[in-house]
Records
---
Amino acid sequence: MNLSRRKFFARSAAGAAALASIPSIVSASIAPAKSSGNYSMFSRADTVLFQGDSITDAGREKTKELPNNPASFGSGYAFLAASALLNALPEKNLTIYNRGISGNKVYQLDERWKKDCLDLNPDILSILIGVNDYWHKRDGHYDGTVEIYEKDYRELLKRTKDNLPNVELVICEPYYVLNTSVVDETWVAPMKKYQAVAKKLADEFNTIWVPFQKVFDEAVKHAPATYWTGDGVHPAMPGAQLMAEAWLRAVE
C-alpha cells in the first residue's frame, strides 16, 4: 500500500471515530431520558414544527414548503432529526415541517407566526432563535438588546400558548463555538446573557430544553472546533448530526 493510500485510510478512520463518538458526546452532555426512549411524547398523527433562523433553515426550499420532504427541510439538524423520527415511528404517521428562515431574530418570527406556526397547528413546536439577535447587533445591522430579546421571546411564547394551549414546546439553546472563523472570546459574555434568557423562558413555560452549548463544549474536546462548525454558528455535517442527536435525546 503506498503512502498516499495509507494517509487516506488513516484520515478516514479518524473521521469515522469522530462520528462514532457523537452519541457518547451527547450522553456526556444530556442526562438519559426518564422515558423508555421510544419517543412517547409523540402521538399518532401529530404535527411537529421546527422553527428558527439559518441554522434551522439550512437551505430549504421556500415555495412549496412541504412536510416530510427533503427539499423543504434543507440539509441541517432539522432534516436529520425529522428523518430519524420518521424512521423510528412509522406507525405514528407524523407530519413534520421546517419553517426556519435565515437571518431571523425573534421579532421576525413573530411577524410570520400565523402563517408559519399557528396555521400549521403543531402538537410539538421546536424553536432555536437568538444568535442573530446578538450577531446582527454586533455587526451594526440591528439595534436590539438582550432585554428586547427576552420581551419579544416571552410574548411570542405567550401568544403561542394562548392560541395552541396543548402544544408541547421545545426550546433550543442558542450557541457559539470558539476558535472558528467568526466567533472569538468577545462573544462569550454577551451570548451567555442570551442563553440565560432562553433557559429562563424554557423554565417559565415548562418546555423541553436542548442544551446545545453544553453539547458543543463537549464536542470540541474530541475534535477541533472547525470540524463541527466553520464559523462558530452554522454547523458542518458532523455538527448538524451532533445537534440532531442532542435534539432527539432531549425529546425521547
Note: The first strand starts at residue 47 and ends at 52.
---
Amino acid sequence: MGAERVTRRTGGRLVVDGVGLTLRPGETLGLLGPNGAGKSTLLRLLAGVLAPTSGVVTLDGRPLAEVGRRTVARRVATVEQHAHTQTELTVRDVVALGRIPHRRAWSPAPASGGAAVEAALARTGLADRASQSWHTLSGGERQRTQIARALAQEPRELLLDEPTNHLDIQHQLELLELVAGLPVTTVVALHDLNLAAMYCDRVLVLRDGAVVAEGTPAAVLTSRLIEDVYGVAAEVSLAHGHPVIRFLRPGTAPSGTTAPGSWPEKACGRAQLDTPVHDRTEI
C-alpha cells in the first residue's frame, strides 16, 4: 500500500497536501502531528473511504479504483477511535462483522469464517468474553473487540485512528503491544509521542496536511522537531534504543540551566512535566 502525492480538499480547505508514503510489509507506521494535521483524513484516504482530490492511493502498485471495493474491503481493515451501536450484540457478534467482506450475497457464512472469528477472539484475549454483551464492556475491552473484528477480516493492512484515546496507561500499552505483534502491515495515528517511539518501526509527521518528517522514531523525534511541530519544548534522550521525551513547562530551561527571568528549580518546585517512557508501564 502507498500514496503518491495525495491531496484532499474539504469545503475549500486543504486537509491533506501532497502526501507520499510507501508501506513496508509487516511494519508499524505511526502517523503523528497536532490536532487538525490531517491524520484521520489520510487514514480514510488509505482505506478508500474518501477519494483524493488529486494523487493516487495504491494497493500492490495499482490504484484503489482499479483494485475494486470488494478486494479493498477484504484486504484493508480499519479501527476508528470510537464504535457505538444501539443494537444488542455480543462480543462474538461484533467480531463476526469482520467476515462480511468475505461473504457473497444471500449465501450462508462459510465454516472458515467461524474459525477466523474464534482465532481473532483468542488472539485478542477475548475468548472468555465472547458471549458477553458489547454494552457491558469497558473502553479497553471495546477497543480490543474492534481489533478482533478487524483481525477476523484477515487483512494484510490494518489502519487504526488514535486507538489509545481515553484509555488508561495499562490498556494503552496492552493494546499497542498487541498491535505491534500482529502479522500485518499497520498504520496507526497516535498523539502520545513516547508510545509512538516505543511501538512504531517508522513515524510520519504531518503539519497542516503536509509531511514534515519521516523515518525511525530515533531519527525523527528530536527536540527541534517537537518544538517546530507542536510548539512545546522537550528534552529527548535514548533508552533501550528508543527516544524518551520529557516535556518542559513553559518558561522552564533544559536540565542544568535556568531560563532567563525564572526562579531556580529548587525555588519553584517541580520545574518540568515528565512523561518518560519507562514510567508508562493506552483499544
Note: The first strand starts at residue 2 and ends at 10.
---
Amino acid sequence: MRALILLGFVGFVAQLVDGSLGMAYGVTSTTLLLAAGTNPAAASATVHLAEIGTTLASGISHWRFGNIDWGVVGKIGIPGALGAFAGATFLSSLSTETASPIMSTILLALGAYVLVRFTVFGLPRGNLHKPLRKRFLAPLGLAAGFVDSTGGGGWGPVGTPAILASGRLAPRKVIGSIDASEFLVAVAASTGFLVGLGSKNIDFAWVAVLLLGGVLAAPIAAWLVRHIPPRVLGSAVGGLIILTNARTLLRGEWLHASDGVRTVVYSAIVALWAAALAYSVREYRRDRAAESVEGVESGLRRRGDEQEAAAPAG
C-alpha cells in the first residue's frame, strides 16, 4: 500500500510539471521512480504504459481545440514510434547495472536542458512560416522516440524545442501535435517493453496508480500554470532532476564517488540551482513590469486617439 501511495504521488507530481510546462512528464516520473529504487527498464515501461492514457486524453483535448497539425503528427509520430520500440527493446536487453547509469545520464542531460531552457529563455516561442518537411521531422522523431524509451522520457524536451526553433509552426500547434504524436510513441514503447520484459515483469497496479495520480493532477496543473510562473517552475524542476540523477550516478557502481566528492558535487549543483531560481524570479518580475508599462502606454495612446476623434473639427 505504501508503494502504491508513493506511485500515485509520483504520477501526481509528474502531471503537475507536464501540465504547467508542456513537457517533462516522463523525465520527472522516471527520475522519481528510479530514486525509489525501481528497475530502469521497469520504470520506463511503467511510465509509458501510464502515458498511453494520459497522452490519449491530452491528444483528444488538443484536437477539440484545433491545436493539431495532423500532417506533422504522421511525419514525426510514425518514426517516433519506431525509435521508441527500438529503444525499449534495447533497454530491456541490458542488465540493471548497465541500464541504470545510461538512463540516469540521459535524464541528467534532459534535466540540464529543462533548467537552461526555462532559466535563460523562459517559455518556448516560435513563428509561423512555411510547412515542415518530412526530411526534418522523420529523423527528429526517430531520435526523440529512442531517447524517450531509453531515458524513460524525452519526447517533449527533444521534439518541442526543435520544431519551435524551426519557426515553421504556431506554438500551440507544436505542443498539440507533439502531445498527440506521443500517444503513438507510448504505445510503441510499451509494446517494446512487453516484448523485451514480458508482462510478468510489469506491475499493472503501479501503472493504474501512476495514471490515476496524473488524472487527479490535471485540473490542478491548469490552475497552477496561472499562479506559478512556468519560467520559475521549469528552473525548479530542472534542478531537481539534475540533483536526483547526479546522486544516482555518484552513488552507483559505475562511478562510486567518495563522500567528499559527492558533497562537493551536490553543493555545486545546489548553488547553481539556487542561482538559476533567483535569476528566473528576477527575469519574470522584469518581464511583468515591462508588460505592465507597455499596457499603461497602450491604454494612454488609445485614450488619446479616442479624445482626438471625439474633438470637434476646426
Note: The chain has one domain: 2-309.
---
Amino acid sequence: MEDMDMKVHRWKTITALAVAVSLALTIGAAPSQAAPLGEGPNVSAGLSASDLSKLPLTDRHLTKREKVNLAVVLRAYHVAEGDVLDSQGFIDLFAKDGVLNGIGGVEGQTSLRDQQLGGLVVWMGTFLPDVHRQLKQITVRGDVVGIELSIQGTFLGPFDTPAGVIKPTGAKIDIPTADFWYLRNGKVEVFDCHIGFTTLYAQLGILPDYASAVAAAAPKR
C-alpha cells in the first residue's frame, strides 16, 4: 500500500509539473538572427528586405501589413530573451483583451491575460535564465503568423510546482514547439503555443508513471 501511495504521489507531482510548464514555456526568446529586429523603438514600422532575408520564411513576398505583424511577433520573442526579460514590454504587445493560450499540458489549455503575461516572462527567466527560441520556419498569412521553433535553455533555476520545488539539474532543454499568433491593428489578440511536453519530461528526467495512473483510476473493490 505504501508503494502505491508513493507512485500516486509521483504521478501527482508530474501532473503539477505539466500545469506549471504549460504556463511557463509558452514564452521564449528569438533566435540570434532575429533579435536585432526587436531592439529599435520603431519595430512596428515593418521589416526591410534585408531583415526578411535573415529569417526562415516560407514566403518572402509579404504585404506591408504582414511585415508589421511579423515585426510585432519578433519583438515579443526579443523582449522575453533570457538577457532582456522585459515583462511590461511583452504585455504592451497584446491588445487590451489579448490572451495567451498554453496548449499541450495535462489541463489541455491554460489561458493568461493582463499582468499574468508579464509574470510569466519573469518566471521563465528564473527557470531557464538563458532561455532562447530557435525559429525554424515562419509562415505569415494576413493577420496570422505561424512559427515552428525549438525552446532552448539550461535548467539552472528552481522549478516551482503545486507539489513542491524541483531543484535545478543543469539539464539542457530543447523542446519542439509550434506558435500561432493572431493579430489585429498591430496588437496580439491571441497567442496559441503548442509544446512537445513528452520531450521536455524526458530532458528533465521525469516521465509519466502510467501504471500508477491506471491503478489510481481503478474502481475500489
Note: The chain is about 35% helix and 30% strand.
